[in-house]
Amino acid sequence: MSEKGSATTYLVAVLVILLGAAYVAVYFHDDLFAVERMERSDYEFELARQTVEANPYNWDAKIVLGKAYYYRKEYALAAELFKDALQMDEENSEATYYLGLSKMGLEEYEEAEKYLRQAVSLARYPDQLYYALGDVAMAKNDYESAIDYYLMARERMPNTSDVLISLAGAYEAEGMLDEAIELLEDAGRFSPELVDQLNREIRRVEQKR
């Protein structure tokens, strides 16, 4: 392998580690369940950009840079990079997944659903994909489909409060208030740090009975 190729491979590896670590660093706002991901640093973004410039045919690097744009909420630029990556590796489940998320950020919900469905068929472990499809259905006010997707996510991630909270929201939208309250109570057992917010939400839903 050439020195240039080795350097590019090293940069991609560093980026994957940095972005992977930041991906799991999430926290809850005081506002109910608004999840905010940590901002990518200028250093990470510049490193990703330089990596793609060094080798524009490296689809791994394009995915890394696309994710950097995605987390900066620059969804159009992210989508373009994920599409480029898929031209080189059309069955890449990660690029397909993030392309779907980027389309959701652009409020292109039909496209988002198309790519997320493709990602489900490509992924060996589609847990998070069902959750994302539920979010797309909610954005389209298709609450019945949202419930179906969230239930599939719940089967695979039964102790995940995010899934329970989202499913509760879909049940509430469908007028299934008892089911929504039960799920919010369950979410509190799995995430004790959210109990105060969840109790406020439960009281709000109870008032709709």
TrEMBL record:
SMART domains: TPR. Gene3D superfamilies: Tetratricopeptide repeat domain. The chain crosses the membrane at residues 7-28. It holds the Pfam family TPR_7. TPR repeats lie at residues 59-92, 93-126, 127-160, 161-194. This is Tetratricopeptide TPR_2 repeat protein. SUPFAM superfamilies: TPR-like. The keyword Transmembrane applies. Keywords: Membrane, TPR repeat, Transmembrane, Transmembrane helix.
